[in-house]
Amino acid sequence: MVRFSFCGRELAALPQGALFWPARRALLVADLHLEKASWFARLGQMLPPYDSQATLSDLTELAAATGAEEIWCLGDSFHDAQGCDRLPVRARAMLTALTGTLRWTWIVGNHDPGFADDCGGEIVAEAELDGLVLRHEADPADPRPELSGHFHPKLRVSHRGRLVSRRCFIATRTKLILPAFGALTGGLDAEHPEIARAVGGRAEALVPVADRLLRFPIRSAELHSA
Q1: What is the CATH number of the domain that holds 29?
Q2: Reported confidence tier of residue 119, pLDDT bands at 50, 70, 90
Q3: β-pair partners for 208
Q4: CA dist., res. 89 & res. 63, Å (int)
């Protein structure tokens, strides 16, 4: 867990791709994409059906390790609107154990609009929490400090002749995009023009490693803001 300042708030980036807000004891995650494998199975593409269990197991461990009292899911928590109904028994038990003991809020994303929550928690379109806007997709027209997800950002760098890929946070002066937390999620290159358009200005990729927060300037965002 690496602490850093964002818009006057002390936050902590975790290598697993989550964000912890110590003052609120809040854990924030984006893009769980629960039941993605079962969605593909309905289309005839068979994947190991353990993605929800793996994701929720990681989230359970992280909630315990941080002592979180709140969990905020920044959209695309399920891969589709019916994903909640398809949760296997064990995964559903893990989820209801979390929603039953913590303040849990679902922010709706583009993959799971209108999903019926049968597992507890509150469903909202977006929220404003102690001066920070929480939504699924960054709004370049909104000047308020904002936390979001949606893009699954990953940093790809060449290291000793090898291409290394790591999930990362994308940060500007007022915007912070979280990486995807789900076990079965891909990633969009941190320098992709869509990310540059979403943040609307110069940005950097943040990669928490052990007790350090590595910072990499995003070239495409700089070109977009020029």
Answers
A1: 3.60.21
A2: confident
A3: 213
A4: 21
Q: With a cut of 90, say whether residue 126 has pLDDT above it.
A: yes
pLDDT at 210: 83
Q: Which amino acid is at 126?
A: E
User: 37-55 b/e with 16+ CB inside 10 Å = b?
Assistant: bbbbeeeeeeeeeebbbeb
Give the count of domains, the chain. Answer: 1
- What does the mean pLDDT of the chain come to? 89
Give CB contacts under 8 A, 24+ apart, made by 88-97: 88/49, 88/52, 88/53, 90/53, 91/34, 91/52, 91/53, 91/56, 92/119, 94/53, 94/56, 94/57, 94/60, 95/56, 95/119, 95/120, 96/120, 97/60
Residue type, 82: Q
Give the per-residue pLDDT at 117.
67
**Domain extent at residue 147:** 2-225
The pLDDT, as a whole number, for residue 111 is 74
